Amino acid sequence: MLDPKYLRSDIEDTAARLKRRGFNLDVDAFKQMEETRKSLQVRTQELQNERNVRSKSIGKAKAAGEDIQPLLAEVEQLKNELHSAEEALSILLKDIAAFCQGIPNLPDTSVPEGKDENDNLEVSRWGEPRQFDFDVKDHVDISQGLNNGLDFESGVKLSGSRFVVMRGQIARLNRAIAQFMLDVHTQENGYQEMYVPYLVNEASLFGTGQLPKFGEDLFHTKPATEEGQGLSLIPTAEVPLTNLARDEILDEATLPVKMTAYTPCFRSEAGSYGRDTRGLIRNHQFDKVELVQLVKPDASFDALEALTGHAEMILQRLELPYRKVLLCTGDMGFGACKTYDLEVWLPAQDTYREISSCSNMLDFQARRMQARYRNKDTNKPELLHTLNGSGLAVGRTLVAILENYQQADGSVKVPEALLPYMGGLTELTPAG
RNA sequence: GGAGAGGUGGGUGAGUGGCUGAAACCAGUUCCCUGCUAAGGAACCAUACGCAUUACGCGUAUCGAGGGUUCGAAUCCCUCCCUCUCCGCCA
């Protein structure tokens, strides 16, 4: 959510900045709602004040043993007037809140303007895509040669399309990747490892911005005996991790808070029918090691660079070629003001594919969830800035390793960095 | 699942219809005293919104959430959420 004060005082400027990301702010509607709100609020408050004053005098009169009846009669009409004013105001306030909650974050000035991923700006490349002297296979074909280590048919049988069963050496590799990432982030990058719920409530989803607008991207559960949507499966650990700060006032000395968690992520992928239907790239369930930072406002842009670097470190240690992309205004998520994507090289697709997305949300999420810290200088609570990034998506890392480390005979070399996690296994073989 | 208790400001915790936006204590900030890794005293110390803006200014709302009763509710009633205790069940 944007700062309502800023929204009110600089609506034109806000609209202009939102336009950069293709969002049309209905300035007139907002102005009109605000104007009505002001007069309605003043009127309501006047009535409330009068009620309070009169009620007090009734109390005094009663204590003094006077006759209250005439006073009560006077107040009768006031009551009705106040009632309808309060009701009208509350409806309007809800409308305004809904309007404000639907506005995305303002893009940072350093973010290039653009419509979609084609307008993203490549910032850097790391590593050289390997030259193959044989026909490269994609991860699906590779896995079939490895004792059917990625079993999509079983995934369909158990759950449906976009689910997978991993077995044997590939399942082991998947686990090794996650362990490796967690170890790097906790031991070298200063993140605290967290274990969090995979089912979260509505307030949490509102806090990070999934609700109310993007509920269709989520899987909602509901206890058999109850009404309503119940809890929802997390689409990313960003939701539980960031919401740890919800309704909290953190001690400034504890900042920055750096947390990491390895969790499954669940996404309905509504609206992506037909996209990436083959393989592991786009599944309803995938594992991810997430990085979240809660920082003081003046530190968030530096933190974004650092956090992105932490995710890059994983790719470098795995010796996977990648590029770093600054997302354009049109490709950024709802709550982000600046986002770097890391795209890993996939030889079978002959292209770079997203494997991490690192964003600075400024105070956008913090305001929604009232996540604050006490400023030592002013002694006042102020909104935190929140950041998150994948460090990395485990499933796509698995894909990248299978494809980049494949060998002519169909086997796959285990990356150096993962050897300590593979129990002596140095390559994945047809024995699986 | 059954029976009970409870949810108050940064923290602990008073408060069962009007003078309580909320005692007291702790923490915090400032000042006074004190010449010393101590102690004492005083003041200040929630958030949001609105009006006003030369003001130490005024008003409204907020005591888990949402409804209701009442001239008036932290205080009474209803629903929901959460916490705790005992019993049952269970990885």
From TrEMBL:
* Binding positions for L-serine per the UniProt entry: T236, A237, E238, E290, S390
Subcellular location per UniProt equals: Cytoplasm
**Alphabetical UniProt keywords:** Aminoacyl-tRNA synthetase, ATP-binding, Coiled coil, Cytoplasm, Ligase, Nucleotide-binding, Protein biosynthesis
Task: Give the EC number.
Answer: 6.1.1.11
Q: What is this enzyme's catalytic activity, as reactions? A: tRNA(Sec) + L-serine + ATP = L-seryl-tRNA(Sec) + AMP + diphosphate + H(+); tRNA(Ser) + L-serine + ATP = L-seryl-tRNA(Ser) + AMP + diphosphate + H(+)
Sorted alphabetically, which InterPro entries does this protein's record hold?
aa-tRNA-synt_IIb, aa-tRNA-synth_II, aa-tRNA-synth_II/BPL/LPL, Ser-tRNA-ligase_type_1, Ser-tRNA-synth_1_N, SerRS_1_N_sf, SerRS_core, tRNA-bd_arm
Q: Is-annotated flag, keyword Zinc?
A: no
Going by the record, the broad EC class of this enzyme is ligase
Q: Which GO terms describe its molecular function?
A: serine-tRNA ligase activity
Summarizing the function annotation, the protein's role is: Catalyzes the attachment of serine to tRNA(Ser). Is also able to aminoacylate tRNA(Sec) with serine, to form the misacylated tRNA L-seryl-tRNA(Sec), which will be further converted into selenocysteinyl-tRNA(Sec).
Q: How does it assemble?
A: Homodimer. The tRNA molecule binds across the dimer.
Q: What is known of its domains?
A: Consists of two distinct domains, a catalytic core and a N-terminal extension that is involved in tRNA binding.
The entry's protein name is Serine--tRNA ligase
Source species, please? Fluctibacter halophilus
